[in-house]
Amino acid sequence: MSKKLFDLQNKNVLLTGASKGMGLAMAEGLVNHGANVVISSRKLDQCEKAAKSINESIGKQKAFAYACNASSKDELNALVEFSKSKLGSITTLVCNAGVNSFFGSMSEIDDESYDKTMDTNVKSNHWLINMVTPSMKESGGGSVMITSSIAAFHASETLGTYSISKLAVLGLVRNYASELGPSNIRVNAICPGLVKTDFSKLLWENPDAEKASSQRMPLRRLGEANDFKGVAVFLASDESSFMTGQALTICGGASMWS
After folding, report:
1. pLDDT class for 198, splitting at 50, 70, 90?
2. Helix axes 21-32, 44-58, angle to 10 degrees
3. Is the distance from CB of 154 to CB of 204 less than 8 angstroms?
4. Edge-to-edge strands of the sheet including 36-41?
5. pLDDT at 212 over 80
6. Is 162 designated active site?
7. Predicted structure pTM score
């Protein structure tokens, strides 16, 4: 009898930035394929609301809520310990938390905004990978996915530091993929284009801006949070067992290989 594709019954997933938007959509997709998940973001009430909605939709408890500021090493440690207490082990890590704390020229950004962007978007993922991978090694392997962006592929006059941080994420992914591969731990990046979430609202909430952006894309639309359910399920599943160190670009064709 052939095995059912994308079966996540034995997968235990820790997600950051998961109480709404892309992160919540990923959590829903993972649970719908059998995984157990810990949903984390800065606000506990939003995490609890997300977990409750998921659990009610399937009629049993597969999602657990925990509040954590991803820029705090102590809070990340506590998040990992909570996840282990609820799940037993962590087989999959989804680093989706991110910030953009400044909009404007690199020549005008203040040190605090620069450090916040780099710490949350890059350093926190470095910390979290090192906190989680010992558990993965004990269980024979695992999957790590980090949300980058197509902003990593080009310069920006208004989102420069954000773009730099997302390019650094690709370097982080590549290096950890090399280091952790012998332990059967895969590390990949997800690179969204412009997606209609609260995070990017300034770029699309104006109807004219949305129309102009969508018309530049071959698919003639912006991304939706649900567009990322499938890629999260694929990367968490054994069906992606030969993929590591890659940047999966989901952007409606806005950024193509050339």
Report:
1. low
2. 30
3. no
4. 63-67, 36-41, 12-16, 92-95, 142-147, 185-192, 247-250
5. no
6. yes
7. 0.93
